[in-house]
Amino acid sequence: MNAIDDLAETHRLAIDSLKQRMADFEAHLKASSPGEDLSGLRRDYSVFKEHVWSVLTILQQQMLEVRRSSDVIEMRHRQKFLLLGGVPEKSEEIVVEVVASILTRQLELPDVTPASIKVCHRLGAAAEGRPRPIFFRFTDLALKKKVWRAKTKLKGTSYVLSEFLTRQRQSAFTVARKLFGVRSVWTMDGNINIKLPDGRRRRVFVYEEVVELGTEHGRSLEVPQPSLSTKAGSKIITVSSPAQVSSRSRRNGPKK
């Protein structure tokens, strides 16, 4: 999955670089001396631009479909997983018992026991004063869905229940919340749902879909553009591109 995401990123950077070169070319044409015959150059450029964009559009659509297909497969494997944040960390804790106790007590679900959780552990390296989120997998998908539907009962506590999204969906989810607001974006069964300013609801899966929706509703994401390096054969190509957001966000669903 990471290889596909990296390929998509390289492709996007190439498009951004090509856009800049086209803009420079157009600026050069506008700055040409009066009376200079550039008709041939203009025709060549117009043909070149039309051809390049038609090819890039096809490639972009194909890449989007490949990423979407792979993402669906990966998300299917994550259906039984959840993340629980805000749980104080202790040196001698039995994590699965801690999770089962919280879900049973806070969500009022006696069906949740240590035996109903197959995999359970904290993620990442321990840090002073910052409890690590807990990653766990249910043995039964129906129980996982039951827990997810009851998550609103965690409101007002320190606990945060999150779905274990793929990297692609997490990026789209984070950007969607920046564009449309935390209360208008939520996930359900790994799907990202957005309540648009006009009241309609849309389901999205990738970053590009979120950006397109933002453009339609006059919203954009202002981010710095650091220099990124991408390998192409034995050469290094340096291009500029918007920084990607990879932070894991908190969500307990929309307010109805």
Notable features of this structure?
disordered C terminus, alpha+beta, single chain, 9 strands, Alpha-Beta Plaits, 3-stranded antiparallel β-sheet
Describe the structure.
This protein has three domains: 2-29 and 38-77; 81-163, 2-Layer Sandwich (Alpha-Beta Plaits), CATH 3.30.70; 167-240, no CATH class. Helix content is 45%, strand content 18%. The chain has six helices and nine strands; from the N terminus they run H-H-E-H-E-E-H-E-H-E-E-E-H-E-E. Strands 2-3-1-4 form a four-stranded antiparallel beta sheet. The chain has a three-stranded antiparallel beta sheet with strand order 5-6-7, covered by helices on one side. A hairpin with a 2-residue loop joins strand 8 and strand 9 (235-240). Helix 5 packs parallel to helix 6 (207-216). Residues 223-256 have low confidence and may be disordered.
The CATH superfamily of the largest domain bears the name L1 transposable element, RRM domain
Strand order of the largest sheet: 2-3-1-4
Instruction: State the share of residues found in helices, binned by percent.
Output: 40-55%
Mean pLDDT: 80
- Give a quick account of the main beta sheet: strands, pairing sense, barrel closure: 4 strands, antiparallel
Query: Oligomer, anyone?
Result: single chain
- Report the sheet-strand fraction: 15-25%
What is the class of the largest domain in the CATH system?
Answer: Alpha Beta
Shape: elongated
Q: Which structural category do the helix and sheet elements fall into?
A: alpha+beta
Count of extended strands: 9
The number of domains: 3
Q: Could you tell me the CATH topology label of the largest domain.
A: Alpha-Beta Plaits
Tally of alpha and pi helices = 6
Report how far apart the termini are.
Answer: 35 Å
